[in-house]
Amino acid sequence: GENVEQHPSTLSVQEGDSAVIKCTYSDSASNYFPWYKQELGKGPQLIIDIRSNVGEKKDQRIAVTLNKTAKHFSLHITETQPEDSAVYFCAASNNNDMRFGAGTRLTVKP
Amino acid sequence: DTEVTQTPKHLVMGMTNKKSLKCEQHMGHRAMYWYKQKAKKPPELMFVYSYEKLSINESVPSRFSPECPNSSLLNLHLHALQPEDSALYLCASSQLRGDKNIQYFGAGTRLSVL
Description:
The structure holds 2 protein chains of 2 kinds. Chain A is an all-beta fold. Chain A has strands at residues 4-7, 10-14, 19-25, 32-38, 45-51, 56-59, 62-67, 72-77, 86-94, 97-100, 104-109. Chain B is mainly beta. Chain A binds chain B through residues 31-32, 34, 36, 41-46, 49, 51-52, 89, 93, 95-103, and chain B through 4, 6, 31, 33, 40-45, 48, 50, 55-56, 90, 92, 94, 96, 99-108.
């Protein structure tokens, strides 16, 4: 089955700096890679996603890159703000079987 | 509207109780999911329903019994649970079209088993 590894487990940045979270996956059949943000007491919320036929996607301050050959994908957040503080999960999906990375706790210091 | 509604938000039950968790969506999604999330861990897939039929069961103990009465509702029946079953139980739903499986999550039910 699919195995998703995510690094780092914790990340602390100063407000305005960039944050990068990296994930690798094992199943070459995975074709869809979403990123979720989970705040305390809430369910995961989709923030950006990418399909396997696309190398990069950007949405305002958030971007995701995918290297299908190397089986890794990354989340980039620029100009971080305190409200970006949360746990971020990457995931890899094949049809409706989705597996999550272990999560990254991002803290943005004002 | 991308809302998935879960009830109750919190549940405390004894090991001999029988209770049910409920999940509802009105987005026309034909896939619905149950996940279990322990503290500081990622969600773990438990069950997947596609077109109201169970399509994935991740070897979950029989004390957890899912039910999908119609395309908008998903239940998780609980019986004879153990304290280690205490966790956040998340429901999600998605469309079954195309290769983009966007799953929308509810806020979860926080379950404590005493």
